[in-house]
Write a structure and sequence with these properties.
Elements lengths: L1 H28 L10 H11 L4 H23 L8 H39 L2 H7 L4 H39 L4 H11 L2 H29 L4 H30 L2
Helix pairs in contact: 2-6, 3-4, 3-6, 4-6, 4-7, 4-8, 4-9, 6-8, 8-9
């Protein structure tokens, strides 16, 4: 019993120390966030690496998620003679929940893990130490452009995912199942609110982006300088990033739609 309590205590203290280091890492990063806007080429390169290269999976997933929503929504609503509302159901589901959450989960698996591996390899090969020896601040040159790029691209990818999802729902509901075209769009535009649905969905995606960026960069910074250490760090990024997104989604949903 005593051994178990000691193990739990050691684990809790290690988690608190890691949280403290992550907080200090974020505080050290905040003053450097304006630097990427003066070095636009660095920022654009990271936007391409994190955003553009993530587009194929976002486009494909968004289209098929929307198609599934359209099919399932029709099968439920047709029993109540409300199949015209499938557009509303698809749009609200994507704007409020599935768009921000699924995009963030896909992004942390594809781009977040890549960021951690990249930073971890830089640490293990002493590239960050070499930058410091040349009087180049790694926080401004390496970490800040990646952080800003993630915060910029995740909301954009969320909007693209949502748009493709609505298109997928339209193709299934109208093109396949025969829902009236005008009813699909009119019901959706009548019930989707700009502030409550669109803006709140974007706010969610920004919060998720900040979380993913901090987790991915911090895990890369903390990764042991071995191939096994970098591998574990990328795994922790995916696990912690995904669980954090789901937890934050519950908190934000409770605050926004209570």
């Amino acid at each position: 019993m005593i051994r178990m309590l000691r193990a739990i205590g050691r684990w809790g203290l290690s988690r608190l120390r890691a949280a403290g280091r992550a907080g200090l890492f974020l505080l050290g990063l905040l003053p450097a966030l304006a630097y990427p806007f003066w070095r636009v080429r660095l920022l654009l390169k990271q936007v391409y690496n994190t955003g553009t290269l993530s587009l194929p999976i976002i486009l494909t997933a968004g289209l098929f998620v929307g198609m599934v929503l359209g099919l399932q929504g029709y099968n439920v609503l047709v029993d109540y003679n409300s199949e015209e509302a499938v557009g509303t159901m698809t749009a609200l589901s994507l704007l409020r929940e599935l768009g921000p959450v699924v995009t963030a989960l896909l992004f942390v698996g594809r781009a977040g893990s890549a960021l951690t591996a990249e930073i971890g390899l830089m640490r293990s090969t002493e590239q960050l130490s070499a930058l410091e020896m040349m009087a180049v601040d790694p926080v401004r040159f390496i970490f800040a452009p990646r952080f800003v790029a993630v915060v910029l691209v995740v909301p954009l990818l969320t909007l693209i995912f949502t748009a493709l999802g609505i298109l997928g729902g339209y193709l299934v509901a109208v093109g396949w199942l025969g829902v009236d075209d005008g009813a699909f769009w009119s019901q959706m535009t009548a019930h989707v609110d700009w502030q409550d649905d669109v803006v709140n969905g974007v706010i969610k995606s920004v919060v998720f982006a900040v979380w993913i960026a901090v987790v991915a960069l911090f895990q890369g910074e903390e990764a042991p300088p071995t191939s096994e250490g970098v591998s574990y760090a990328t795994t922790r990024t995916v696990v912690q990033g995904s669980l954090g997104v789901l937890a934050l989604d519950f908190v934000l949903t409770a605050l926004m739609f209570n």
